[in-house]
Design a protein that fits this description.
By secondary structure, this protein is mainly α. The chain has one domain (about 5-100). About 40% of the residues lie in helices and about 10% in strands. A two-stranded parallel ribbon has the order 1-2. β1, α3 and β2 (about 70-75) form a beta-alpha-beta unit. The longest helix is centred in the middle third of the chain and has 12 residues, at about 55-70. The radius of gyration is 14 Å and the shape is globular. The mean pLDDT is about 90.
């Protein structure tokens, strides 16, 4: 789970080798304002599904709430962006401000 604009901008997707992918997109900004709706959507998945969340501070709260009710969930933050930049040869350290801007 993340914002569509971010995933559309990646040339290299770290999750391309996954057996199965299901994307749930959230707002690029102020994601927490949609929290109840997002949580309800994620609760609709089978509990064997692993939720990988990349939606700012909202991801941290979602992981806590989902794991409390028996789901598997990870907050992987900027992992997908980091992977894309590494594969493109972009120096993350030299671009740290740009790297942490909202996707």
């Amino acid at each position: 789970m993340g914002c569509k604009e971010a995933f559309d901008s990646y040339k290299f997707n770290i999750f391309d080798t996954a057996k199965e992918l299901k994307y749930e997109f959230v707002p690029n900004k102020h994601c927490f304002s949609e929290y109840d709706n997002i949580l309800a959507r994620l609760k609709g998945y089978d509990k064997d599904f692993i939720h990988i969340l990349m939606c700012g501070p909202t991801a941290n709260v979602l992981v806590a709430d989902l794991t409390e009710i028996g789901f598997r969930a990870l907050d992987l933050g900027h992992l997908a962006k980091n992977y894309d930049w590494q594969k493109k040869g972009i120096d993350i350290n030299a671009n740290v401000v740009k790297f942490t801007l909202p996707d």
